[in-house]
Amino acid sequence: MIMEKAEKRPLYNMFTAVPPRYDLVNHLITWGLDRRWRHQAARECLASHPARVLDLGCGTGDLALNLARMSQDVIRIAGLDYSRPMLERAARKAAGLPGVRPYFIQGDAAKLPFPDRSFDCIGISFAFRNLTYKNLLSPQYLAEILRVLRHDGRFIIVESSQPKSKLVRRLFHLYLRWFVYHTGSLVSGNKGAYRYLTESAARFYTPAELKELLLDAGFRKVSYRPLFFGAAGIHVAVKR
Residue 20: which pLDDT band, with cuts at 50, 70 and 90? Predict the structure, then answer.
């Protein structure tokens, strides 16, 4: 089920144009590793045995679906995104799940449609760049995340990162700008979306910069685990 309606934001048209081959492109440009990384992020989300979890910027719902399949506890899972085509695909994918089934909401991360302290954990998979990369609304997004998290709640981010090694970082950026851009553009037919993806990933925060951003926003501690030589990583932030 999909609820609510989102106010359009600058990236809205881009991400409503991508969905038909969105999942396929993600698997191609990461050589299937995105599945493993989301699985690891879901496991991190569930480590504290939350009763209520939000998949923020859920896209086609893969993190929420992982949470539903992996949970051994009674749990309520919501997925929120502003792209209705993405949410429609997520709902179709969730329709065949036995047991726990996520529900999906169309909404704006700058004004989350939930009361204060609604969630024990919030996860976000490869959408945190969209909220923070050259985004003037970044402080508002982070404030909303903190608002709907309970005290000691956890914010789990799996996102592209900057490898510590200069050589690996240079190779990663070449890979983004050549393979990821051309493959994504060709398969999806949307050059603009994959130009944005490659440039935002290549210029995104280092782990140390992202930690500082989260601490300044109001989280009390932040940890980081690199994935694939630091090309991606899992950040765990805990609310004060």
Answer: low
Q: How many domains does the chain have?
A: 1
Separation CA 238–CA 157 (nearest Å): 11
> CA-CA distance, 68 to 42, in Å (whole number)?
9
Token pair for 220: 């009390």
Asked if residue 143 is part of any domain, the answer here is: yes
25 domain residue, yes or no: yes
User: CB–CB of 111/142 below 8 Å?
Assistant: no
What are 146-166's pLDDT values in tens digits? 999 999 999 999 999 999 999
Quickly list DSSP for 108-139: -TTS-SS-TT-EEEEEEES-HHHHHTT-TTHH
- Is residue 2 over pLDDT 60? no
Can you give the pTM of this predicted structure? 0.91
Sheet with strand 103-106: strands edge to edge? 2-3, 103-106, 76-81, 52-56, 119-125, 149-160, 232-239, 219-227
Q: Is 50 exposed, middle or buried (0-12, 13-18, 19+ CB in 10 A)?
A: buried
Range of the domain at 229: 2-160+204-239
Report d(CA 102, CA 133) in Å as an integer: 28
d(CA 98, CA 91): 14
CB 152 within 8 A of CB 49: no
